[in-house]
């Protein structure tokens, strides 16, 4: 885990309380970017519909199933919505029913079915063990299949701390302890670390994600660290971690190291 933050103690906590009371809701994270368009298409591009047409799709970390349902509505043969939280799967099932795609959607907390396409949207900055998730994906995708991943903002983005980014980069300036103490004023789940907050926060960076992918027997077909639009001109190898708004990539399985001939 990344140790960041140097403003702590009572001082840090009180500054956060003050900043929290005067915080302006950040439009980048309120979902408004997708209000009148498909989130899936915005993040993965229009080519995604062709990639999943007639295919069996696994929506990894599906949440309440909004994307799962859209996959089914827009051409997937069958979609499995997978999430570790049973409480989000019931609304997902009801949503599929209402949308008339219940016959093509399954929502579950576990699967061992091999699929043609795996999609993970906004999960990789939350999964407690992202390397294990990639290994699971590697096992579940068919040899000629594809994995599409998009997540963001990554940890060093101005709002990479999600709720903890009371103002840009606040999650890097304040100690974890001060941030968690401030959060416990209005959340009662007893979290004492970033990784324990509801939904989890694993401090994923662009570089760490890329390293994990390389370790997990995937070939990288496409990899993009898309910069924050307004800071696009500042984006280069040195600033990339700080100005990347989201990561998106397309992976294909390659034979495991042990299976490759020398
Ligand atoms: C931020 S939500 C994203 C939900 C949805 N993909 C979306 O874009 O709206 C991340 C989801 O991943 C789920 N999740 C976390 N760890 C998981 C795991 N190991 N396996 C499956 N789902 C997981 C969480 O429960 C949560 O619903």
Tell me what you see in this structure.
The chain has 262 residues and is of the alpha/beta class. It has one domain (9-23, 51-253): Vaccinia Virus protein VP39 (Rossmann fold). The chain is 32% helix and 20% strand. The chain contains ten helices and seven strands. Helix 4 (66-73) links the parallel strand 1 (56-60) and strand 2 (78-82). Helix 1 (9-21) packs across helix 8. 37% of the residues are buried. The model has no long low-confidence stretch (mean pLDDT 93). S-adenosylmethionine is lined by residues 60-63, 66-67, 82-85, 88, 121-123, 126-127, 133, 199.
Name the features:
alpha/beta; Rossmann fold; binds S-adenosylmethionine; seven-stranded mixed sheet; methyltransferase activity; transferase; 262 residues
């Amino acid at each position: 885990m990344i140790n960041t933050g140097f403003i702590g103690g009572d001082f840090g906590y009180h500054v956060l309380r003050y900043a929290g009371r005067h915080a302006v809701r950040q439009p980048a994270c309120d979902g408004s970017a997708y209000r009148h368009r498909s989130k899936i298409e915005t993040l993965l591009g229009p080519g995604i519909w062709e990639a999943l047409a007639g295919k069996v799709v696994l929506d990894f970390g599906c949440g309440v199933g909004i994307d799962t349902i859209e996959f089914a509505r827009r051409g997937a043969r069958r979609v499995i919505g997978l999430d570790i939280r049973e409480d989000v799967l019931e609304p997902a099932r009801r949503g599929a029913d209402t949308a008339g795609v219940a016959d093509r959607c399954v929502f579950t907390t576990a699967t061992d079915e091999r699929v043609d396409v795996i999609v993970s949207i906004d999960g990789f900055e939350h999964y407690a063990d992202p390397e294990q998730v990639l290994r699971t994906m590697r096992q579940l995708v068919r040899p000629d299949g594809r994995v599409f991943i998009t997540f963001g903002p990554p940890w060093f983005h101005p709002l990479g701390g999600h709720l903890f980014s009371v103002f840009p980069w606040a999650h890097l300036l304040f100690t974890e302890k001060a941030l968690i103490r401030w959060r416990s004023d209005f959340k009662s789940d007893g979290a004492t670390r970033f990784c324990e907050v509801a939904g989890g926060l694993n401090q994923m960076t662009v570089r760490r994600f890329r390293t994990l992918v390389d370790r997990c027997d995937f070939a990288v077909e496409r990899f993009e660290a898309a910069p924050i639009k307004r800071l696009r001109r500042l984006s280069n190898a040195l600033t990339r971690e700080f100005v990347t708004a989201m990561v998106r990539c397309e992976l294909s399985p390659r034979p495991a190291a042990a299976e490759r001939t020398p």
